Amino acid sequence: MVAITFLRLAALVSACAGVIGSAMVSTLQLHEARKGVPAGFSLHGAASPDTVLNLRMALVQNDFPGLEERLYDVSTPSSANYGKHLSKAEVEQYVAPKPESVTAVNAWLADNGLSGTPISAAGDWIAVQLPVSKANKLLGAQFSVYSDDATGRQVIRTLSYSIPAELKGHLDLVHPTITFSDIQPLLPVVSPLLQANPQAENIAANPNAVPASCNSLVNNKTAIVITPACLQALYGIPATPATQSSNTLGVSGFLGQFANNADLNLFLTTFRPDISPDTSFDTQTLDDGQNSQDPAAAGVEANLDIQYTFGVASGVPTNFISVGDNNKDGLFGFLDIINFLLNQTAPPQVLTTSYGANEGPISPMLVQNLCNAYAQLGARGTSILFASGDGGVAGSQGGTTCSDFVPTFPSGCPFLTSVGATSLPDSGIETAASFSSGGFSNIFPTPPYQKDAVDAYVAGLEGAEYNLTAKFNQSGRAYPDVSAQGVDFAIVVNGVFNLVSGTSASSPTFATVIALINDHRIAAGKPALGFLNPFLYSSAGASALNDITTGANPGCDSTGFPATEGWDPVTGLGTPDFAKLLAAALALP
């Protein structure tokens, strides 16, 4: 509908471009700016005037507040409309730009010899190509070349840009302009090789609470190793195969991380011999994505995600969604994959992603637009889960010098479920993993569903180390929401067993629990859970989780946040108790 409108308006654009364009050139208003070059980047000089920029422009959505209201209405257990997820067309009605916005932006572009191509189903995102010289003039910007000090990668960005005053309320943002960040797999540790066939070398449990299935021999020493059987024992996850073919689980893949079928088969043969070793996953691609089956191309992150979704969510149809480097959003493909799924008639009921970045280097308006896209997919009935990060309170990866705590991206978005990490010490009592990122967004306020839990936690903090005004935004959206095991997961990469750790193991683990619960709900004639947080923070949801009360997430020259009774910014509300969560979920409408 909107794309057709763009074409039909061509004649009007030509007629009015001169009037609108001449007014706009002289009335540029600052739209976005950052104070200086972000830490970790260096300025190399002005960009060549002839370099062509591929810009993305977001038009103001006509009624996002209305969509947000509907999202909460279908996701809040006490609502009479719980579970009545919206259709593709219903969502697009809320986010499609108004005709006057389409007219104004197209006229401005045409007056400057440019045209926009819609790149989202609702028409709220358009793509524009133009040289640096024209972009500098059109946006009152100074596009320059910057390099990432760590990788040497160069990008063309500006520290500020403006838009015509007449486009305020029509044009929401231009990108990439002031965004510098890179995403990374949230997988910080790869440990030495496991001995061959570790499942066969499981030993009897020590006289503590550690399940026997969690004990293995690693390099001739007894150690706790996370395997599918271990997770099933810890969280009561059944091995019974799912039955509903309409219930699907999506696994995001970025940065050339490929999931290998041969490695999956060896993993299943070793750890889930009750599942056929010929089991395979479906692959969907976008942005020139692929999924090479060359053994040497097997990715640690992709293999981890696929092996544990298949190894724990028994029988749930799983799709590996490979996003290539030719992304159309200038945001690592994060927005592209959501628009890709929004354009599907039946997107997956669960989507897990184990990649992230720090919130600060990204344009706040861009963060908001991506978050709005998550709300759209949530309203369609998809549960979106993200790894919270592996840097404690020091951000996505840690290792940075900081005084204030560093929020991660996109965990600060209130419309997704952020997953932190726990570990299993010899005592057998789950504790917070020290790397588990958690904190408070500097962009989004505390959403209603978590306000009571967060206020109670903040009120309980004591000591000068937790100076509320100096360390973090106490009124921000808090994360993670939940947690799961994240230390020493056994995986297979290029035919070799390894141990890996990170919240990137925790997110697919919790996603498998939700996928299996959806299987039961659908079998009972009920809809999938969809956006999880209002349910998880309800009394029924919170009481179905194992509260983690020990550990902390140090960083920024501090001991970080402490895990305590109730919600905390290390482990969230806690880890899953499958039987309790299933009972609570089946009791929902």
Automatic annotation (TrEMBL):
Co-factor requirement: Ca(2+)
Signal peptide region: 1-18
Ranges of residues in domain Peptidase S53: 225-588
EC number: 3.4.14.10
GO biological process: proteolysis
Keyword Transferase: no
Function: Secreted tripeptidyl-peptidase which degrades proteins at acidic pHs and is involved in virulence.
Name the UniProt record assigns to this protein: tripeptidyl-peptidase II
